[in-house]
Amino acid sequence: MAAPNPQKILVVDDESDVSALVAYHLKAKGYQVEVVNDPNRSLGIARTFLPDLVILDVMMPELSGIQICRLMRADPQLKKIPVVFLTAKAEENDRIQGLETGADDYICKPFSTKELVLRVQTILRRLTEVAPAEPKRLQVGEIVIDTERHAVELHGQPLELTATEFNLLKLLMERRGRVQTREHLLLNVWNYETEIETRTVDTHVRRLREKLGSEADWIETVRGVGYRIAERRTAGG
Fold it and tell me: Is the pTM of this model over 0.70?
């Protein structure tokens, strides 16, 4: 029996056989799925359907998945919706470009439908988990996190972060001064097991630093291990 309010997933892929396969397996898990084979219609349908997650093919005619993701991140209605890229472009640079665009995950074709469903479940579970009691306000330098409002301020101004970037920054700030390995971050931010490639973490940290601007140096790289928020700012920082 389907859940009374199933989570909604939008699948955008110009290959109807691929989108039908993905939709079949997601529906079998109880999700409400909408399929779009024309990328030009994807944003309009997303605004109407308001999915909990979007699965995007990258290589599509006229409007690529990268372009759609950028447009989503600029749209007030859609900017916080998690995006998973599903694509035949398997090179490392392609994966990095996808993650830097604002995607939350990147799955290469040919793919395992079981792995795809598991990754979707992981991302959606992160959004619905009830977090334990935590400080309502975290501050490092000019970076302030209000955990109750799920908001970040930089120099007193609102800072727009994706859900993954927010969770990454919050975890680092909560554990200030303690090194967080890439594997630990994958497990606690992404809920992934450690065999998933750790380059995902590096890409998100780089993007987060870019958004933090002059406060980026609070995030220290511990070579060969991982990252931490510094106990104190170095001279000249």
Answer: no
Two tokens at 21?
């396969």
In the predicted model, what is the mean pLDDT of residues 53-58? Answer: 93
Distance separating alpha carbons of residues 61 and 79, to the nearest angstrom: 23
| Max CA separation in the chain (angstroms) | 61
List, by residue range, all CATH 1.10.10.10 domains of the chain. Answer: 137-229
What is the CATH number assigned to the segment(s) 137-229? 1.10.10.10
Token digits for 103? Answer: 């995607």
Backbone angles phi, psi at 198, to 5 degrees: -80, -5
Separation between Cα atoms, residue 10 and residue 50, nearest integer Å:
9
Q: Please tell me the predicted confidence (pLDDT) of residue 130.
A: 52
Start and end residues for every CATH 3.40.50.2300 domain found in the chain? 8-128
What does the radius of gyration of the chain's CA atoms come to, in whole angstroms?
18
Q: Exposure string (b/e) for 54-80, b if CB count within 10 Å is 16 or more?
A: bbbbbebeebbbbebbeebbeeeebeb
Query: Is residue 138 within 8 Å of 145, Cβ to Cβ?
Result: yes
Under 8 Å between Cβ of 57 and 87: yes
- Which CATH number fits the domain 8-128, given the four candidates 3.40.50.2300, 3.90.380.10, 3.10.180.10, 3.40.50.150? 3.40.50.2300
